[in-house]
Amino acid sequence: MSVVSFSSGPRWASALVVLLNAFGLAGQAAFADDAAFTEAADAVVADWTRNFARVFRDLATRPEAEFVTAWQQKTDEWRAGLDAAASTHTPTDGLADEYRTRLLYEWAVGMYYYESYHRGASANPEFVVTDSFSDYLDRVRFDAEDLLHLDEYTGFIRIFRDGLADERFEQPETLPGSAKYLTAKLEASTFFDNEAVRCWADGQAISKWFEENNADGVSDEVSNYASRCPGDTASALTAQWQDELASREGHVIEVYKSIGDVDLELHIYEPDVGRDDQTPKPAMVWLHGGGWFFGSWGWCGPCQFYKDRGMVVAQVEYRTRGRHATDIRDAFEDALDAIAWLRQNADQYGIDPERIGVSGFSAGAHLSLAAAGLAPTEAPGKPDIAVSFSGCADLTIDPYIVRMAGGMEEAVALSPANAEPEAWPPLYMANATRDSDCNYEAALQFSEIAKAQGAEITFLTQENAGHFFLREPERAEQTRAPVNAFLDAKGF
Q1: What do you get for the CA distance between the two ends of the chain, in Å?
Q2: Which helix (H) or strand (E) holds 254?
Q3: Alpha-carbon span 109 to 122, nearest angstrom
Q4: What is the rounded distance in angstroms from the CA atom of residue 268 to the CA atom of residue 115?
Q5: Close Cβ partners of 421 (under 8 Å, ≥ 6 residues apart)
Q6: Integer Cα distance of 178 and 302 in angstroms
Q7: 8 Å CB contact between 486 and 430
Q8: Residues 190-209: what's their mean pLDDT?
Q9: How far apart are CA 408 and CA 391, in angstroms?
């Protein structure tokens, strides 16, 4: 008879323990039950992890009262699976409770997301829940240092802190420095009374900032964190900060524009070939991606390709929503000013002022197209060519982008698709058919209409690929050859 069968009832279980104690095997039996329970419980966890997003989306469309009931019922189904595993396998004290706690915080995440789902996915920023909806928070613990090892707990703490930060970010003018969303997160973390929980939240915020912005805008945040929260996280963030500082070495950095007390920089790199050639060289201004909300001048996969061609590369630090609480119009103006600055200082860097191109990915690709098409013909910030990877031609399609633009009127005005055909310099565009961030059909339609009206556009379709197709080596190689041909034909 198996151990599992004996453990299904209390009298059998007691008899089994007595018997096993006689042979010194009670510890092995407990281990066997824990292993069996964990396997069964992990299957339940795998199910809720796999189906969480789908189930939530299906239920979140319902009115509040219906959603609360349905979401609880679904959570109860998952809990029943955990209870069944516990009754079948009799885990040691606390193990089943830990799984139930994990499920509790997954349920709380769904409850928290309900309102933000309607504000965002439903494009209804005025949506609010009833006063009683937040009563669900009474079932969770915010200062549970003993739960920091659970991803579900820290996940809930993170999204709750981010929600507080979003509220704080609604008054960006009161946030100091040029890492405003990070500052909002650090201020929001003061909600937590437990120092270990707050240190976790602050460490996660700084780490996320490095992931999304490199060290752009960071000043004293890392050192302050290390002095308050010493340990492995602080050591890792300090090392990362030092690496970021080192990335600023070995190339020229110029301030091309100052907005108040914020200096915007241009990072200028000499080409890797032809350095001794005194003939003025073509230049490529690079504009990074990041949804106009985050991103860093250092994000430039294609820059090595441009330098290998013998081009001077200038990587732009432009204003983003997360750092400076600005909108797309500000980023567009920064792009024009960066190109104009480089043109006006071309001689200093051996650059041909008549061969200055602009290139970018995603949000940066949109800014490249906008600079090419929307800048006045004789403006010094108008590039001589533009190379766009996964760029948005029409900003009016996506509600998020409309908000980032500052409203529909600005989204229309900043859409490259609305530029006059005769305004365009030669363009190269590469877009993917499965791009869920910048609409492929809109980009293709723009290119076809503009070409029919006389614009010179080379358009590359990446079939069955997504927004980040350049990250795939094979697709990057497929893109490189036609870009080379385009630049060769234009004398770049």
Answers
A1: 79
A2: strand 252-259
A3: 18
A4: 45
A5: 449, 450, 453, 454, 455
A6: 27
A7: no
A8: 98
A9: 19
Q: What does the alpha-carbon distance between residue 90 and residue 84 come to, in Å, rounded to a whole number?
A: 10
User: What is the distance between the alpha carbons of residues 100 and 75, in angstroms, rounded to a whole number?
Assistant: 10
- Predicted local confidence at residue 122, as pLDDT: 57
CA distance 67 to 306: 53
**Closest among 302, 312, 315, 314 to 282, alpha carbons compared:** 312
Based on its alpha-carbon atoms, the radius of gyration of the chain, rounded to whole angstroms, reads 28
What is the greatest pairwise CA distance in the chain?
A: 94
Per-position DSSP letters for 317-378, written without gaps between them: ----HHHH---HHHHHHHHHHHHHHHHHTGGGGTEEEEEEEEEEETHHHHHHHHHHHHS-TT
Among candidate residues 184, 183, 234, 180, the one with its CA nearest the CA of residue 207: 234
Q: How are beta strands 312-316 and 385-389 bridged, if at all?
A: unpaired
Q: How far apart are CA 40 and CA 25, in angstroms?
A: 23
Q: How far is CA 355 from the centre of its chain?
A: 33
Residues 115, 128: contact at Cβ < 8 Å?
yes
Report DSSP state, residue 92. P
Which residue in the block uniquely carries the two structure tokens 């961030």?
Answer: 437
User: Is the per-residue pLDDT at 3 higher than 70?
Assistant: no
Half-sphere exposure of 106 (CA within 13 A, CB side): 27
Question: Residue 423: what pLDDT?
Answer: 80
Q: Answer whether 82's CB lies under 8 Å from 41's CB.
A: yes
For 16-72, the pLDDT digits (tens) are 333 334 334 334 444 558 899 999 999 999 999 999 999 999 999 999 999 999 999
Closest by Cα among 109, 201, 197, 168 to 322? 168
Amino acid identity for residue 178 in this structure: S
The DSSP bridge partners found for residue 262 are: 259
107, two tokens: 């349920």
Cβ atoms 286, 315 nearer than 8 A: yes
**Local structure of 385: helix, strand or coil:** strand
Distance CA 26, CA 171 (A): 61
Split at pLDDT 50, 70, 90, the class of 125 is: confident
C-alpha closest to that of 371 among 362, 358, 389: 358
pLDDT digits (tens, 9 = 90+) for 241-286: 999 999 999 999 999 999 988 999 999 999 977 667 789 999 999 9
**Contacting residues for 277 by C-beta, under 8 A, at least 6 apart:** 310
- In whole angstroms, give the CA distance from residue 174 to residue 158: 23
Q: Report the residue count for the chain.
A: 492
Q: pTM of the full predicted structure? A: 0.88
CA distances from 255 to 163, 224, 252, 283, 337 (A): 34, 27, 10, 18, 11
Which amino acid does the sequence have at 328? I
- Residue in the block written with tokens 């940066």: 364
Choose among 299, 325, 323: nearest CA to 313.
299
